[in-house]
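agent: user wants the structure for TIR domain-containing protein from Pygocentrus nattereri. delegating to structure tool.
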Amino acid sequence: MQAPLPFCTYLLLMLSCFVCVLPTNGFFVINCVIKGSLKYPANLKALCNKRELCVIPHNIPDQTRVLDLSYNHLMSIKKKDLIYFTKLTHLNVSHNWIKDIKEGAFRSLTALQELNLAHNNLHIISGGSFQNLFNLTVLRLDENQITNISASAFDPLISLVMVNLSGNHLAHIHEVQPLFQLLNIQELHIGRNGFSSFQTPQVSNTSLKLRVLDLSWNPLRVFRITADVFPHLESLGLAFSNESMTWDVQDASYLRNVSTLNLTGIEMNEEIKSVLQTFNTSLTNLSLYRLKEKTLIKTACLINPLRTLHVQSSRLASISAKELTGCTDLVTLDLSENSLRNITNLAFGFMTNLKRLSLSRNKLDSVPPAIWNLSSLEVLDLSYNSIYNLTCSDFNSLAQLQTLYLSRNPLYSVKPFQNLTNLKTLIISSSRLISVTNCFRACLQKLEFLDLTQNKLNYIHKEDFGDLKSLKHLLLNDNQITTIDKGAFEGLQKLTVLNLQSNKITQSSLKASVFSGLTNLKYLLLNNNYLSYSDQSNLVKPPFRYLKSLETLAIHSQGHKGMLNFPSNFLEGLTSLQVLTAGNLNLNFLYPNTFSHSPRLLSLDLSRNELTTVSQELFTPLKRLNRLHMFSTGLQSMDFLMQANLTEIQYLQISKNELAVINETFIASFTNLTYIDLQGNPFSCDCSNALFVDWAIRNNVTQVVNADQLTCNYPSKLRGNKLMELDFESCTVDKGFFCFISTTVFILLIMFSSILYHFLKWQVVYAYYRLLAFLYKSNQQRKTQSSGYQYDAFISYNTHDELWVMSELLPHVEGEQGWKLCLHHRDFQPGKPIIDNIVDGINRSRKTICVISRHYLESEWCSREIQVASFRLFDEKKDVLILVFLENIPPHQLSPYYRMRKLIKKRTYISWPKPGEDTRVFWEKLRMALEAKESSKEENPILSGISGT
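agent: tool returned. relaying tokens verbatim.
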């Protein structure tokens, strides 16, 4: 048998067709913003934070790598909430109300590396909380209400490197003992709990890999190390421990590698000395915030390896050499956030190696002379003090200084900086400087970064910055600049960033000569000034014609009235421009050739302008454009954008416009679009947007930002309804679905036909003729009921038996007995199909006589005749079939039609006598059979199975 092969083949074809038309899942997610594209899922992020969510959104893309659900109202994490995120690497559910994590809730997150559960209401961590998280490296459980942790809770976390359990209600250190046993744990934060003691026997008896241990803000009464279990420990936090804490480290070598120690707020009196002596051979970084005794500084400086000392927020009013005498090897000293008013001249006299000094957030009214002795200083922070003046000699001896912070001082004037030949960064922001003329002379030859933001500068002179040959960043924003001299920035050939935003610069000050010499300038910020033009005619001297290397230009938000007009050659010279922000300029028209000077634009912002109509030619030159912002511009159509053929657009922000319909042409025009913002448009909620809604939900390339918030404006009865919630099924004809259905049906028919033909060939033929007879029946019934049958019997025979029919049957039955017979050679209508003649003859005859011989059983036409006659038997429930056997035929040679007749108990048949036997009984039985009524009951037994003898 060969049937199984085609059946399997057809089945595979059907399944492949089914797979091809299955719709792909898009990444339209209610209350989430998706960053990235499903085409490149390696960086796919789902940001669902700060959405007041009570449940985890169900249709976040399965390929998401980073999921942020922080700052919501989640109460629990259920087993099925995260079941599909098998690729997730970072999960943040911090700042929720989570009280319960069901066992196995994270079992599908086998790729997860970082899990943040901080700031929730967890009380218990059960044994099945972290199933299958064998790749997790960072776990945050800080700021919960945890009182109990199962001993097996952390067993699956074989890759865990850092865990934070700070800010919980754990009372005994043995409750976190399983964490110390993790093979790869290196960083453990268990501060702000209720631990009253920390003893190594409670933790481990074997050597651990731990590098960071934070026990701060615990009421520790005992800290005891009796075994060498922390050979790799580098950082130890004991801030704000119990003032009467017993320090028992039996061998200083047990903490031999601790280099960072935090003793902030500790009040151990004399005991603190023994603590510090423990680290006398290793400690390099010590924090003593909120120090109450200055003498402790001197004690700390006795630690030979100490290089960094933080003494912040200690309310120190003064500092002298007495406290710092032993700090000769310090490299970093942080005295910020104190109340320092007085620093003695020799306070830093012994600190010959000091490189970083922070005196910020104190009450100094001048630069302390104490710094003059710090010839090795590289970073000096004097910000947030009360310094009014800077003199020429303030930094004379700081030849190695590279970074100087002077921001947030009430400086009125600055004398020229001298001897700062290595200074690279100078920050004098948020002061009261009116002028910087002569401040930056030739001594600052290496200065690269100059920040003068938030001062009171109003005039930029030519000589102000001319000597700063190495300057790369110049920040002059948030001043009161109205005038800039011609060539004010000449000589600044290395300048790449010039920030002039939020000043009072007008178009009269913005001349090309102002920017002459800035051959390498890449970023120019001129937004929030007072640029304004009376018309759009060409400028004689475009302001940016010398800026051939400029890549970013910001000119948005000009004055109270805006820029009003955009000269057609305003951008002339900006051949390298890639980013232009020109929003909120009160523009209502742009010349078609406006951007012809900047064909390399990648990002363009024209938002908050009244550009109700935009010509196609305006965007035609921008073939590289991939980001376009045009929100709140009054747009009613995006035809201009489609006609410009901007195929590279990836980011499109057209929110708060007058767009009512997003049609198929629009969708097809931007094949690379990954992000589109359409919020705040008055959408028409009818069939014109049906395709857009379907696309927004199903497409897996373009993210429609906050699509669930799009609302209807038309018709009025639907105004305010959510566009995505409307039913557009009556509008949409899913051609793909109908194609699938029709294809599937076609394939199934072929399969069914093949099976029938192979296994049930004759049954199919039989059913075909039954159908023909049925169709013929309705037409013939009216005739037979009104006029009766035309023949008494239809004779079905094989041509090999024609001699017997003509010489025996016809003379006796038609001649002697008077019956009218239907014979095919005599009564069939010429030209009519044979099968039609057979059906007509049988249905016009009361009976059908089948003359059966071996030749008859081999004849195809005879088989069809008996099939049609059998149909009458089944359909009319009447015995209309008479079988005449001309020879003795064994039962196993009988056709299936005879066996079928036998099964339904229609057993009227007559056998022709053998040669020499009397034939009178045969003809009598045949007469009785023809006379018998067509009853549906069992035949007269006398007529069943009788021979002619």
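agent: one observation worth passing along. The chain has 19 helices and 50 strands.
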